[in-house]
Amino acid sequence: MISTTVVINALELGCIYSLVALALFLSFRILNIADMTTNGTFTLGCAVSATVALAGHPYLAFPAAMLAGAAAGFVTAALQTKFRIPSILAGIITDTGLYTVNLAVMGFSSNVNLLKKTTLFTQLKPLMGAYYRLVPTALIALAAVGLMVLFLKTRLGLSIRATGDNPDMVRASSINTSFTITVGLCIANACTALSGALLAQYQKSADINLGGGMVIIGLASLIIGEALLPKGKLWVKALGAIVGSIAYRFIIALALRLDLPSECLKLISAVIVALAIGLPAWKQAKGGKAAC
Amino acid sequence: MLKIDNISKTFAPGTVNEKRALSGLSLYLAPGDFVTILGSNGAGKSTLFNAIAGTFLPDSGTITLDGRDVTRMPDYRRSKFIGRMFQDPLKGTAPNMTIEENMALCYLRASQRRSPFSMISKAERREFRDRLAQLGLGLEDRMDSLVGLLSGGQRQALTLLMATLVTPKLLLLDEHTAALDPATAEKVLTLTRQIVAENRITCLMITHNVQSALTLGNRTIMMKDGQIALELTGQRRATITQEELLAAFRHQGLDNDRILFSAQ
By CA distance, what is A163's nearest residue in B? Predict the structure, then answer.
């Protein structure tokens, strides 16, 4: 049977990783850019958060990580808009460079340990008892979704949505697409870095390999969320990031119960994403042939 | 209002594909002028619009809008006060955003004094609803529908409304009814006439339909080889028949199949 601890852990991790899914909701679903910076940015968030917390500033760690993430997003956006590098390649270039940056942030060590150090969670423990990790992570995830939905209804948010939705329209209207893409990628990567920052303090360590496969995990979560919730309003879609991410963590928990090695999940995630994104087009192509 | 002074544009200069799309064209529009533009394919009509809208910069000449030199201003800044519509109804609206969100985007961008984080108010939402109701298409009850679900004619009517939600200094209509069926095209043209007249918008309209070119607006120009070959205003424009106009076309060497076809 699955114990309460397992359920709470899945909820906590789901809330933390939902920020990655939310970031991809903005970059992939709204801006139509597969942002490969995500893996490196997640690790960057972990590294900055751990290093700053180690220096005795567990709260400052979060804005610092977000700022670092936004900077990474800015680099990818600049490569794409100023130097006309295709978006996927731009992300991979930044991601590759970030590997060294991340090592440097951790003092050229492949991990940082926060055992017995003060973190956001150790500070909250006396206040919240058993839920000292669930309450803050859930609140942060919900606040992020709320802010994202509000932002997407502002002038800038609407412009970012139009940039991904109809480039022809945008070219003919007063929208500077370089600017909207840059803002979108900065926000998305700040969000991803926040996720990494939370995880580092949650598990009291940062590791250079934490971000591996994060794009696919985030996309899988996002797609699971879309499948579970009814189609329709924007806030429902954004909420799907949290729902999908929690569902994904439950699937992992179940798999671990079945003694499946957790490494297998990356392959399963990859298959889920490939099928979910590929199936509609494949069906369409097949339908088109049948009609001929 | 709009002053185009001796602009020229050559594409692919120095190659075998060299094409002189605009050659020393000048055009002056008074406030409230509604000019219709005729001309065969390749005459430079759309190139003229692209130059005005800033899609590319002319090789020489100047463009002044409302006393301000906009020749070198980037297109996204120009389009704050220039509204533009294309033939393709899919080009003017974002399909995965609702009618209200599309309108909000245009409104928030076109009206000045707003921060990037501004949103529309309840009062503005009501105003959008009233404006939609004036189209007479029943869209006012579907403000939360995605625009991708609308028909081509509905989308084009919505684009027209969006382009004029905040009255632009200049409205460019590039064959905006050509892709619609005749009845819908007529409806959108009627709306165009109504909205342009009500707001006294200065407007340029490209069309291949000789009759609408002569009945809409107050001036008609014909383009050939990147220049204005013929201009009709006042009495002469009011009395000229389609046959006479076609004769003038032929005289100018302007005739082509598409124009003849539209006139019949």
Answer: B94
